[in-house]
């Protein structure tokens, strides 16, 4: 493929990626998915487009497909914390809690100070009935973000289960 043609494909991919990103932010997930599908068609190794595609799919409650998109993004760029985090959320939505915890743990390896990852890890532990461990995760969230009212609330929920 001539160099100029490759360059044009990259420009096309970037155009559709930006369109998909804007639509995701506007919560127009079906439209975002259409744009992101085109972006990865033009550039199959576009990790960010695969990640945003996963967000759109998850927001449409298509969690298995979202996980596949996150997995593709991780194959291309394994060190992106928020992709592991979103993968964990999708796994949790499917009741695959141990796998979700593993994804959160990998996300924390790359970003140990991310309060939202600690928080979602705590929610998953509640779903598993591991309330003491959940409390520890919520306390870590609060340590990192004292204004995280949702972590205070969920900490109280976990403590309530412990009586």
Average predicted local confidence, pLDDT? 94
Envelope shape: elongated
What quaternary form is this? single chain
What is the first-to-last residue Cα distance? 66 Å
Major β-sheet annotation = none
Helical stretch count? 9
The unreliable regions are 1-5
Summarize the helix and strand pattern as letters: HHHHHHHHH
Helix coverage percent: over 70%
- Percent of residues in β-strands: under 5%
Count the beta strands.
0
Annotation keywords:
disordered N terminus, elongated, 163 residues, mainly alpha
Task: Report what the structure shows.
The chain is an all-alpha fold and about 160 residues long. The chain is about 80% helix and about 0% strand. The protein is built from nine helices and no strands. Helix 3 runs parallel beside helix 5, helix 7 runs parallel beside helix 9 (about 150-160) and helix 8 runs antiparallel to helix 9. The protein is elongated, with a radius of gyration of 18 Å. Mean pLDDT is about 95; it is low at about 1-5.
Question: In a nutshell, what does this entry contain?
Answer:
The protein is an all-alpha fold. The protein is 82% helix and 0% strand.
Summarize the SSE layout with pairings.
Layout: H1 3-25, H2 29-42, H3 47-59, H4 63-76, H5 81-93, H6 97-110, H7 115-128, H8 131-144, H9 149-162
Helix pairs in contact: 1-2, 1-3, 2-3, 3-4, 3-5, 4-5, 5-6, 5-7, 6-7, 7-8, 7-9, 8-9
